[in-house]
Each structure stands twice: as structure tokens, then as C-alpha cells.
Amino acid sequence: MTNYHLTPSQFREEGKKIIDWIADYYEKIESYPVLSQVKPGEIKAGLPENPPQKGEPFEHIIRDLDEKIMPGITHWQSPNFYAYFPSNTSFPSILGDLVSSGLGVQGMIWATSPAATELETRVLDWLAEMMDMPEKFRSTSTGGGVIQDTASTSALTAVIAARERATKFRSNKTGVREMLVAYVSSQTHSSLEKAIKMAGIGSENLRLVEVDEQFSMRPDLLHELIREDKKKGFHPFFVCATIGTTSSNAIDPVRKIGEICKEENCWLHVDAAMSGTAMLCPEFRYLKDGVELADSYSFNPHKWMFVNFDCNVFWVANREELISTFSILPEYLRNKATESGEVFDYRDWHVQLGRRFRSLKLWFVIRHYGVEGLQFHIRKHVEIAQNFTRWVKDSNEFEMVVEPALNLVCFRHKAGDDFNMALMNAVNETGKAFFTHTKLNGQVVLRMSIGQTYTEEEHVKQTWNLIQKTAGRMTQG
Amino acid sequence: MTNYHLTPSQFREEGKKIIDWIADYYEKIESYPVLSQVKPGEIKAGLPENPPQKGEPFEHIIRDLDEKIMPGITHWQSPNFYAYFPSNTSFPSILGDLVSSGLGVQGMIWATSPAATELETRVLDWLAEMMDMPEKFRSTSTGGGVIQDTASTSALTAVIAARERATKFRSNKTGVREMLVAYVSSQTHSSLEKAIKMAGIGSENLRLVEVDEQFSMRPDLLHELIREDKKKGFHPFFVCATIGTTSSNAIDPVRKIGEICKEENCWLHVDAAMSGTAMLCPEFRYLKDGVELADSYSFNPHKWMFVNFDCNVFWVANREELISTFSILPEYLRNKATESGEVFDYRDWHVQLGRRFRSLKLWFVIRHYGVEGLQFHIRKHVEIAQNFTRWVKDSNEFEMVVEPALNLVCFRHKAGDDFNMALMNAVNETGKAFFTHTKLNGQVVLRMSIGQTYTEEEHVKQTWNLIQKTAGRMTQG
Ligand SMILES: Cc1ncc(COP(=O)(O)O)c(C=O)c1O
Ligand SMILES: Cc1ncc(COP(=O)(O)O)c(C=O)c1O
């Protein structure tokens, strides 16, 4: 009689095949077109319209994975993926997450798996040390860290905690009744606007502060706006400074912004989604100067730190504010440990209740690479970006748009917006590389984001040659 | 020269060891104490205070996993785990999620991996068919499904979309300016209150409707409250009905509540977090009678459908309302497919921007088990719960609190609250089983939640014997 389960011994067999499947994938990853070439609806059309009534052999699932799913994959892990921002991973991370899936614990509170909570606390204290973050972000001080799914959710968490503090912890009860106003730069990631909307503040109450020629927020204009708003009877409550904006990797002046926040009593959230990882290297830490003035700070190991999606780190300076904002204790979750006050119940630190064992993959990565191994890769990516910058500067047809702070190169062909878009599409359609664009000062800008796990200088060099050749053909044609 | 990475061939080796480690774990899972016996701080104290400067061999990580982490695990996957609610998994799910980690794609929009979007759409349409959900929840009609992380996030998503619709899509712009009021029952999960707070509505504007003796929401009282609120100038906008409350698995009368929502122009969200899975079986579908009146519906395959955490299914009747609420299109994400309107960009369906390839594990589970295999297990769990109920009824010392609708048995010893709490703690401390309590009508109630993957009748029988024996010893002592 069947009970439909895979037995442990079948799991050993199928699981090892999947491990080989993944290893094979990485061995041949460069043979795939980086950007999937399928048309809308094509993948769905290849999948049966109706669900299977009876279970199917595992090999059929894998066959369909190869034949029906793989053509619709855009290969983020390809060394020739330079689009958007990195979302890199590594074998240790994949295995750490596999252990998490295997254990299948749900760590919503300490009691439901103490190790899930305590490893997370420990590893985030490690990370704070690895990045020389301020004492107050550590669990041993007034603050602490929690793993969130994404920077977007962290932004929402920060906005809501700030909203609560600004309203003397009334907004959770009464709703948003005050004229709260928040400040970001014109370059801040869209997740902040989304958070302001979701939290019931309203996008009309979000001010976009103008930036300087490096696309960094102008603190003088921030201060002016705050003062004007106060005069008009608004209540400024929240500022987001970005270390490494999405478009051009601009660095907001955190210290100056932080001083204004202290003076004006605003919550300072720092979004270092991608570039935060660079703080592993002492030589890049000047970019976070002033971070001890922040109330919260978020960065994504799932972007540039070899930890697979999702994994966002969110630190707060004062955990009590966070916990009073998000905690709820229904009877069915009451337990001795929670009542003792000696433990963290992480569901009180964020939006969700349930949570998997989130820290395992981060722990695997830190232990496997060590601080040294992580620094090695970050430095390599930055160096490649510097070399790419040199090549652009050495060419006659292309120009740099801004000096790269780290691993993102913003450049353009001199022949104008339409040409740049056509050039980008032409290169992407070859399948040999994938990069994307943005707009800065109203102009199309091409972006080479260098941060995938297996990207070496030779890949970037080849892509640069391809870009040049394609542009050459287009200008001739 | 090292580049610190595991090579693909090292990954093959270490990966296969982890697969064996997981298989071994399931083979010996019954030898662990179900509820971790560690004290607060014990696990953390076993982990080094400082991060490793140099990377460490993989076997050291696994050794520490065994020695330092495992004692702090509460074994959710044990067949003797009856606490809270199930959060089960299965080998096919673990492998589906492994493929997702291996591919490492970030499917925030269609273009960033078309297969990630289109498989999700297809599989959620399958599920709608498998559960005989209304036509309007399907992508081929006006609605569609999206995989969220948790039921909590789905609740927040529903509240915000409802808030937008009720304010004629102004609240995202202006903030919450109207006197919006929401309704849940006194038994509704705390995530709804949390959502109402986060969305800027305020818990003062959340009404708790009283329940009947089955702990189901009383629609007559709901209607009364709505009418009173309207008279007072409030704007009722949102109702949550639960199919299977957390405490006692009560079923709210969805049809009656839905009719009131239509009449009073409220958004109806249905939270079927655990019990939603039962809709795979035709004989349990009467529990969702009236669901075609809902605007949104959420359930957790990560609870009772053998899909590992996290995986929540969120269906809406009108996807346009959802998308107008959550969409944001920064320049750097503009692309032809999005502009064509032919594709779904799932980041517009929820809070987060980034998302992993969420549907793979769900696809693996459905294909491996087929509808038939899933039905088999759901029916078995319900049958075990019925047998447990019979045993309780046959005993002199224990009594049932409510008739179980599905797989959750609420019972108590007749000797009073303190005795029940002491009994529960005594059994849990043996490590042989883990179950939890709640309060109903102010009284302590013990809960046997039967839904873990490997729970068979013999496990539950043994636990029942243990409970009886322990109680016997306690009454003698
Ligand atoms: C009825 C109900 N709704 C919502 C939830 C929240 O689930 P999640 O952890 O997925 O947010 C639960 C259980 O946790 C539940 O039982
Ligand atoms: C600066 C910045 N902040 C936030 C985000 C959002 O990241 P996530 O997908 O983790 O929400 C991104 C990129 O997506 C980003 O570049």
C-alpha cells in the first residue's frame, strides 16, 4: 500500500540527482542566453491546463523542469548578468537554505525553536562587528538585528515604527490622524514611496529632496523643506538616506542628514540595500560615515553577499520602539520564555507571524568564506568596475555619467537616448550578456552592475567588446 | 590560488552529504524531544562571540549544526508535534525549494524570469480548480492568484487594497483621512489586528464581532454593528471571515457574511490559513459555502499541504484593484513586456519588490502527490482527529470543548485550568509529544492539532495514553 510519500531512501536518490542537476547547471550556465528569449504566454502555454489527478514520477517533473521551465529562466547567476543589481548566491548558501527546508521549523517565537532565534541574534551581532556598525545596533546594547525578507519590508517596518514613535505610540490605536511628513531624495528607491502609501501616510506627504550633481541628497534642501513643513503645521517624522541608490549608486551624506534628524526629531532610516555589503571592507566604510545617528539600517545579503534570496538584515538602535510597534500576544502563543522577558520573539520585530529558520544560510556563508573570503570578492568586483570605467574613458564613443563609488558603472554612448536603448536591446538579444538602463537628469544611462558570484574580469571584458562591436555595427549601418 | 568558492564538484560532495543528513534526520526524528529543552541563552552561549576571520571547512559547520544547533530545535516535523497548527513539509517540497535556491532567479517582474511568473499563475489556476474555487479567482477571469510569504502579509495586502477601494483610490495619496472601520470576530487571528494597525486604520476602528457557541461569527451582530457605525458617521470598509480559526477551528458563515458585505459595500477577505487545504476534498467544501462573495481569499500550503514554509496563496476577485493599489514603476524596471500589458508583474501584487522562484515547491508537491495523494493525507488527518474525539468522549476524566470540524481537537481535563496547564507542561517536558493550549470562554483548553506529514494514528494513540497516564499520576499525587 502506498502512502504517496517519497521514502527517505527515495529522497536520498532524488535529492542527489537534484544536487547534480544544480552542479551541472553552474557548469554550463554560460551556454544559456542570459536574458530569457521567450514571448509572453509561451511558458504557460507549455504547461498542462489542468492539474494532475494522480501523482507523477519524479523524473517527469525534472524532465519538464528542463524542457518547459528552463527556456523561461533569465539567468541571474550567470557571470554575464549585469542587470538591475546583483542577486547573487553561493553553494554554501544553497546548502544552508536546504538544511532550513529540511528541518522545517517555524521560528515565529523563541519557544517554537530556540536555536532559530538565537543563531539569528548571534549572526547579526557578528555582522555588526564585521562591518563595524555602531554598538547600539547590537543585541548586547539597546538595539539588535532581525532578518527580514526584503529591503522593501524593512522600509515598511521602519516607516511604521517611526510613525508610532512620532505619534507617541497612538497611531496603531487611532489610525493616522496627524499631518506626518516623510523625506527621501529624488533618487531613493521606490520601495520607500510604497511603504509611505501602505502605512497610511500618503504619497502627498512624501517630499522628494533634490540631489546634487553626484545624485546625493542635498542636506541643506532637506533642512529647508523640514522647516517649511513645520511652519505650515506639518509634522516631519521620517527621513530615508540611501547608501548606494539603485540608479547610479549615489551616496547620501548620512552624517549631515543624521544631524538634521536629531535636531528636528525625525527617525533616520538608512537603506544600504546593495552597497551595505561593501562595509565588510574597511576601505569602503567612509561611505557609512554618520551611521551612528540612524534609528534603523537595512541591507540585503541577498544582493551582493552570496546569500540567496531572500535575506535582508534590519538593525534598529532601540528595539523597544520596534517591539512596541509590532507586538501582539494572543493566548495561544503565551509561554514561559516569552513571559520571562529573557528572549526575543522575532514575530514582534516585523510584519509576518510565521518565519522559517532564516539565519542558517547566512551562518553557512559567513563560516565558509570567513570575513577574508567575503572581502576578497567584494574587492574584486569593485576592481573590475574600476577597470571597466577606464575602458569607457579610453573609448571615443562612450562616456561615463558618474564616477562609480563601488561596483556599478553608469555610462552611455554619445549618440543619444534612442541609440543607447537600441544598443542595449541589441546586446541583450544576443543572449551573451544582460544589462539594463536607467534615466539620470532625463537622459538614458546604461548600467553595468558587477556583482554576480562568478563574474570575472574576462567576462566583463568580453561584454565590453561586444558592446563596442555592436555599437560600431549600428553606427555604420 | 583559492577564490574561496566551493567548486561544483565540492558542491556535489557536500550537497549529497546534506541530503543524507536530512534523510537521516527524518529516520531518527522520533528520538529527539519534540519540544526543545534548552533554557534562554543556552544556544547563543555555545556559539562563538566573534565571527570567523578565515573560512572554515564544511565539516566544521555540519559538526556545529549537530552539536550546537540541534539541541535548540523544536521538531515541527516530528509525527508527535501537535502544537499550534501544522507547518508540514515533504521531500518533494524540499527538493522544489532546493531547485529554486539553485537557480537563484529573482522574479520581481515577468521579464526577470518569465517562467517564475507564468508557472506561478498556472499553478494557482490549477489549485483554484483543485479546490473548486469561484471562476473569478482565476487568471483567465477578472482575478488571479499570487504566492505571498504568509497569511499575515496577505491580510495586510487585503486590508490595504480594501482601504484603497473604499477611498476611491485616494488613501495611497492622501493618507488615511476617512473614518474607516473594519470587522472581524473575537476569534479572528491576531494578524488581522496587526494589519489594521500597520495600514494606518487603527485598532480603535476594528470591531470584534461576538461569536456563537460554536465560536463562529454572528452575522446578525455584524450587520447591527455596521449599521450603528454608519449612523455614527463611520465608513465600514472591510470584513474578515475565517474558515478555521486558530484557537478552535471555528467556521464563520461566509455566505451570510458575504451577503452583508455586498449590501454594505465592504471588502470581504476570507482567511482559511490552515483549513483551506481541506477544500481539496469535495466532502469538506461545504465549509467554504459563499466564497464566491469574497473579494480576496488566503490559505497556507505551508501549514497543511506539505509545502515547506513559506508559501501562502492569495486569490483576488479583481486583480485591477490589487494592482492599482500596489504598483509602482521606476524607470529602471521599465521594459517592453510590462508596457505591452500582456504579462503579470507580481511585485505589483504585494508588499515586496524582490521575490524568489516561489512556485517551484508547490508545483513539485502537486505533481508528485497528485490531487489523489493530497486528498489521502487530508482525509487521514481528519479521521485521526475523529478517533481522538471518540477516545476523549469515552474517558471519564476528559471532555470535548467543541466538535472538531476537521483536524483540530479541543478538549480538557475536568479538573480545571491549573490542572490542564500543569498536565500540558508535564507531557511536553517528557519530550515525547508537544501540544499547546488556548482559552475559550475564559477557560483553558488543550489543543491537539493533527496535520504533520508523518503523523499516524498510532502516534496520536500513544500520546493520548501518555496524557491519560500523566493525568492519572497527577490526580493520585
Ligand atoms: C487562521 C489563521 N490566520 C492566520 C495565521 C497566520 O499565519 P502566517 O504565519 O502565515 O501569517 C494563522 C496561523 O498562524 C492562522 O491560524
Ligand atoms: C537601494 C535599494 N533599496 C531597496 C531595494 C529593494 O530591494 P528588495 O527587493 O529587497 O525589497 C533595492 C533594489 O531592489 C535597492 O536598490
Polypeptide structure, described:
2 copies of one chain form a homodimer. With 477 residues, chain A is α/β, with parallel strands linked by helices. Chain A folds into 2 domains: 105-356, Aspartate Aminotransferase, domain 2; 365-476, Aspartate Aminotransferase, domain 1 (Alpha-Beta Complex), CATH 3.90.1150.10. Chain A has helices at 8-27, 42-45, 58-69, 91-103, 114-130, 151-166, 171-174, 190-198, 219-231, 254-264, 301-304, 319-326, 336-340, 360-394, 417-430, 457-476; strands spanning 144-148, 180-185, 206-209, 235-242, 267-271, 296-299, 312-316, 398-400, 408-413, 436-440, 443-449. In chain A, a hairpin with a 2-residue loop joins strand 10 and strand 11. In chain A, helix 5 runs parallel beside helix 14 and helix 15 (417-430) packs across helix 16. The radius of gyration of chain A is 24 Å and the shape is globular. Chain A starts with 7 loop residues before the first helix and ends with a helix. Chains A and B meet through helix 1, helix 2, helix 3, helix 4 and helix 5 of A and helix 1, helix 2, helix 3, helix 4 and helix 5 of B. One pyridoxal-5'-phosphate sits between chains A (85, 150-152, 189, 191, 242, 245-246, 271, 273-274, 300, 312) and B (352-354).
